[in-house]
Design a protein that fits this description.
Strand content: 35-45%
Number of strands: 35
Number of domains: 4
Strand order of the largest sheet: 8-9-10-25-24-23
Distance between the termini: 108 Å
Largest sheet: 6 strands, mixed
Length: 351
């Protein structure tokens, strides 16, 4: 029986297998034809081996897997699957991959976007980089500039540039024309406390991942379950419904990159800002909605009692004093010479 060990050599992602005696296994198949190696290709789905120049050369495909960073719900991984994938969406019987977009054929400005198992429907917002843009070409939403000139430089066909002063504005050179749009942030499937916006990015993303668990007859969204057809509003910017295909379908009314402020008792607060309403209440602005929560004071440990503190919400804990009765007066008794009962209560006598 031939035994193979993996040696890493060459350039890029190519690997070669050799036997314990150092010789390289040969193959008589055509270049590019797959080679099955028991214990390797049948157990490690990311390794693909092929015949190249009469030798067995293998490649680690995991380096080519698309990133799932920012996804919260991941598809369950099959035993024969190499790459982990973000959860897709079902739209009227059509399956969309995460990050895939489709436009309405009648009104191309109406966009349906899948992200991490959630559908976001929105109207595309357009930007321009030239004074006299041409009307949008057939089947497209935004007007275009006749040259792919972006901030004084020509950009390549298919290249996309992001405005350094406004990360939500991006321009792409398509068919020799420059089209600029304002991003619409997708509705995220993770709870709001897991939303993070990386530095220099327009849209938030989920800070952790989880494997998707299929739920029958209900939509799973931000750790909650919703019935088919049920409408819900997770925040003031977002309205959603559990679709017939059990996919959360949402619309986001807040412009990308703009934070919605709160008005509370005549004072304006920015999104995410916290303030002390009174000594026992803290408030936070969450996407236009004010959320106030009372301070949770810890319980005093056993053997102590809470003592109110002026100007403070929570009391201080003071150890209870243990009552000890005062000692009784000592009495000395003399009887039946020579017997004594002394102050400590003991009987004594003298000879």
């Amino acid at each position: 029986m031939k035994i193979f060990i993996l040696l890493m050599f060459g350039v890029g992602l190519d690997f070669a297998y050799c036997m314990l005696d150092g010789s390289t296994p040969k193959c008589d198949k055509k270049d590019g034809e797959n080679i099955d190696i028991p214990g390797i290709t049948n157990r490690l789905p990311c390794y693909k081996c092929m015949c190249t120049g009469g030798k067995v050369v293998c490649e680690d495909k995991s380096k080519q897997c698309p990133s799932v960073k920012g996804c919260y719900t991941l598809k369950p991984k099959r035993a024969d699957q190499c790459c982990q994938e973000c959860q897709g969406c079902s739209v009227n019987g059509t399956i969309l991959a995460s990050d895939q977009k489709i436009s309405n054929p009648i009104n191309p400005c109406l966009v349906t976007m899948c992200k991490d198992g959630v559908i976001t429907r929105h109207e595309q917002k357009c930007e321009t980089e030239c004074e006299n843009p041409s009307p949008a070409p057939p089947g497209q939403c935004c007007p275009v500039c006749d040259k792919c000139m972006w901030k004084g430089e020509m950009i390549k066909e298919g290249e996309t540039k992001t405005d350094e002063h406004n990360s939500c504005k991006e321009c792409t050179c398509t068919n020799g024309l420059l089209v600029c749009t304002r991003k619409t942030c997708p509705v995220l499937s993770c709870p709001s406390y897991l939303h993070i916006t990386p530095k220099g990015k327009c849209c938030p993303q989920c800070s952790r991942t989880r494997t998707f668990l299929k739920v029958d007859k209900q939509c799973f969204f931000r750790n909650k379950l919703y019935d088919r057809g049920e409408s819900f509003q997770p925040d003031t910017c977002t309205s959603c419904q559990c679709s017939s295909s059990l996919t959360p379908t949402c619309s986001n009314t807040c412009p990308a990159g703009e934070r919605q402020s709160c008005q509370f008792e005549g004072v304006k607060y920015s999104n995410g800002e916290r303030w002390q309403y009174d000594k026992c209440t803290t408030c936070t602005c969450k996407l236009g909605a004010t959320d106030c929560t009372p301070t949770q004071c810890p319980d005093c440990p056993s053997g102590s009692t809470p003592i109110p503190q002026p100007g403070e919400c929570c009391p201080a804990c003071k150890k209870k004093a243990i009552f000890q009765p005062p000692p009784s007066e000592g009495v000395c008794t003399v009887f039946g010479d020579p017997h004594y009962k002394t102050f400590d209560g003991l009987f004594r006598w003298t000879e």
